[in-house]
Structure formats: structure tokens, C-alpha cells
Batch of 2 targets.
Target 1
Amino acid sequence: MHAVQLGDPSVPYSHERDRETARASREALLARAREHGALVATAHLTRAFVEPPGEASPGRPC
């Protein structure tokens, strides 16, 4: 799971083979974490795989 998906588990990852199942899995995991008061962290914090609208990538204008 990417940090972006903690805020919105419906955001897909480009390498998912079954996006619907992946989304459902993320939603279930986050629901269980809330239910149990768990702390959830993700290791994928170095580079986002999505660009927020209106932001430019290096070498690419908005």
C-alpha cells in the first residue's frame, strides 16, 4: 500500500492485476485497522505513483 492509498484506498497502483480486488483488500485492511485502533504505516514513501492535479513532474510543465 502506498501512503496516498491510506487517504484514499480507491487510488489504483499501476502494477495491480485485479484493481477491484486490490481496492477491496485495502478498504478491508483499513477498516480493520480503525476497528482495532491499529497504527498503519507504509514503506512506499520515496516517490508517489500518482500526480496530484495541477502539479508538474520534473521536466514536465503543469
Target 2
Amino acid sequence: MVYVESFTGGIFLERLIDLDRYREAYGVIQRTALDSQPSRDLLREGAKEYERGR
């Protein structure tokens, strides 16, 4: 089961085709996500660039 929330409410998805799509999307996110330290470094760099542009 997958719960999907939006601005107007949420729904539970139970069809296998829907679950497979979410499993695939989750797998892509897991494979492309940065580890904790590189994530922090990227956020710090973005914050520095934002501050320079103000």
C-alpha cells in the first residue's frame, strides 16, 4: 500500500501496477541520493551562493 498526499487530501494506492511504479521511483531515489556528508556540503554551498547573491 502507498499513501499519496497532495494539497487537497490523500489517497491510498493498492493496485500492483501503482505499487510497482512507486517501488521503481523509490529505487531511483535511493540510487541517486547523496550520503549524509555530501548532502550537507551541497546544502552549505547552496546557502553560501544564496547569501552572495542577496
